[in-house]
Amino acid sequence: MILTDVLGSRVLNSEGDLLGRVADARFVLDQPPGQLLAGARLQGLIVSPHSAGSFMGYERNDVTRPWPIAQILKWWHRGSFLVLWEDIEIMGPETVRLREGFTAYHPGLQGAGPGQAPQR
Amino acid sequence: MKRLLGVALGILTAIGGFVDIGDLVTNAVVGSRFGLSLIWVVGVGVVGICLFANMSGRVAAVSGRATFEVIRERLGPRAGLANLGASFFINLMTVTAEIGGIALALQLVTSIHHLLWIPVGAFAVWLVIWRVRFKIMENVAGLLGLCLVVFGVALFLLQPDWGQLAGQAMAPAVPQTESAAVYWFYAIALFGAAMTPYEVFFFSSGAVEEGWKVKDLVQSRINVLAGFPLGGLLSVAIAGCAAVVLLPAGIEVTSLSQIVLPVAEAGGKLALALALIGILAATFGAALETTLSSGYTLAQFFGWSWGKFRRPVRAARFHLSMIICLVVAIGVLATGADPILITEYSVVFSAVALPLTYLPILIVANDPQYMGKHVNSRAVNLAANVYLVIILVASLAAIPLLIITGAGA
User: Which residues form the signal peptide (chain B) (predicted)?
Assistant: First the structure.
């Protein structure tokens, strides 16, 4: 499976309700050093209820310019959340099903690192 | 002193390099049909290209990477592909038009049919891209392109009724012989010609080729802010010549010989020779820039190594893709398609593609991770937003107007 197969997939909760689509995948570079970068580990998926399009870089909380493009893109992806790899039950080709009682994290990034303040 | 010379040279090449076949043809056509009543669009276009070229030059100088590389990395493959798809198609059309322009100019000089000159022109373009150093290539084409100043001189020699010309320019109105739809169609074509997408890609990739740093920002800003408006004045002179000679005579521009007709009438053989050198240099220079832009955007999207600062063997796919683009251009022109017509379509389609080109540039020029403290100022963002609205309107209106007016017929 390659990333393109996952991006845009429908995301369901354990009851089968549609939560949104996969807009992005988030990786953490914390593995042993490779040729160019440290090895990447899949932290989780970004689920967006309204659009599977790119965040265009506006997933970082401190990027708010230029008005109104930043605001439009943030609004476009309102209600999106990060689910960790551990909370994913099935990652199929068409749909992603989440485990019961999964945690939805805030998708924003603080500076260069991932932000993980619980959202709901 | 050396720095001053560098600035002067930069401005001069920016002036000479501003005009390409799209500007030549569109300005002459517009001048011959509307006088100077559409000339305000050149002003709007020049301010726009200054704004976005300056932005993309700044991205390249600060981040050390071409703008499109940053777009691909920051906005992701899908947004990058939308941008690439739109601008690459326009680019290829522009390459075709420029090579056609070289061939037409050579036909005027030699009386040998332009179809025979097409492979020669394309080969020469390839040879220069393969062999000549970036800086020399830029400066020679730009300086020879300055011969187009002869259009400005010709306008004075023609001793036009300045009051009437100023009246057309200051109080623009749709001429009685033309419909409003045709007027706005040509407004969009002129706007597209001034803001052709290849210019920003070439500008930022060129900045990487020349190794610009933050300290070069002032010089690059002067080059753009002085060179492009003066280049825009050349466009106005071309339109002015057409307005003075061709409009009263009822001549519609369908060939290059009609574009240079006013210059020949005003200044005789010598002026004509200069105009032809200028047109040849301008189209050849633009053919180099558009061909390189095709290679740059493809290589930057797919992550191939690119650049004339590398030997061709170190950037093989970059060079190969440019050769394929040139072959495609030859193939299209070999069908006997009229280069002037291709040019007219290319400027309209470039207006269609503009939002996909310029919105991502605005986004990355605001990204603090790449730009640090050199992100766009509020004033620049405000102006860019105004331009995005204009660009969007022009883009949406272009195709309907193309159909309604039968391509301005």
Answer: none
The range of the structural domain enclosing residue B77 comes to 21-404
Report the complex ipTM.
0.78
Within a domain: B372: yes
Residues forming a β-bridge with A91: A96
Dump pLDDT digits (tens) for A1-56. Answer: 788 888 889 999 999 899 999 988 898 888 888 777 788 888 999 999 988 777 88
Angle between helices B378-404 and B339-364 (to 10 degrees): 150
Residue in A closest to B359 by C-alpha? A69
Number of C-beta neighbours around residue B370 at 10 A: 20
Domain encompassing residue A83: 3-52+79-105
Q: Look up the CATH number of the domain holding residue A101.
A: 2.30.30.240
pLDDT of the residue at A111:
57
In-domain check, residue A30: yes
pLDDT of residue A108: 85
Name the domain count of chain A.
Answer: 1
B385 with A56: Cβ contact below 8 A: no
Instruction: Please give the tally of structural domains in chain B.
Output: 1
Q: How distant is the Cα of B397 from the closest Cα of chain A, in angstroms?
A: 22
What's this model's pTM, rounded to 2 decimal places?
0.90
Please check whether residue B10 lies inside any domain of the structure: no
Query: Which of B75, B375, B384 lies nearest to residue A57, judging by beta carbons?
Result: B75
Is B384 close to A66, i.e. CB distance below 8 A?
A: yes
Give the DSSP per-residue string, B199-232.
HHHHHHHHHHHTT--GGGHHHHHHIIIIIHHHHH
User: Is residue B9 in some structural domain?
Assistant: no
CA separation for the pair B333, B340 (Å, rounded): 11
Task: Tell me how close the Cα of A57 comes to any Cα of chain B, in angstroms.
Answer: 6
CATH of the domain at B93: 1.20.1740.10
Q: Is residue B16 part of a domain?
A: no
Task: Give SS3 for B266.
Answer: helix
Search chain B and give the residue with CA nearest A68.
Answer: B385
Query: In whole angstroms, what is the distance from residue B200 CA to residue B198 CA?
Result: 6
Q: Are B363 and A69 inside 8 Å of each other by CB?
A: yes
Chain B residues within 8 angstroms (CB to CB) of chain A: 74-76, 78-79, 359, 362-364, 366-369, 375-376, 381, 384-385
Q: What is the average pLDDT score of chain B?
A: 92
Residues B347, B370: Cα–Cα separation, whole Å? 32
Judge whether A9 lies within some domain: yes
Cβ-nearest to B381 among A56, A57, A65:
A65
Residues of A in contact with B369 (CB under 8 A): 60, 112
Which element (helix H / strand E) includes B105? helix B67-110
Kindly state whether residue A116 falls inside one of the protein's structural domains: no
The shortest CB-CB distance from B363 to any of A53, A57, A68 is to A57
| Cβ contacts from A onto B, under 8 A | 40
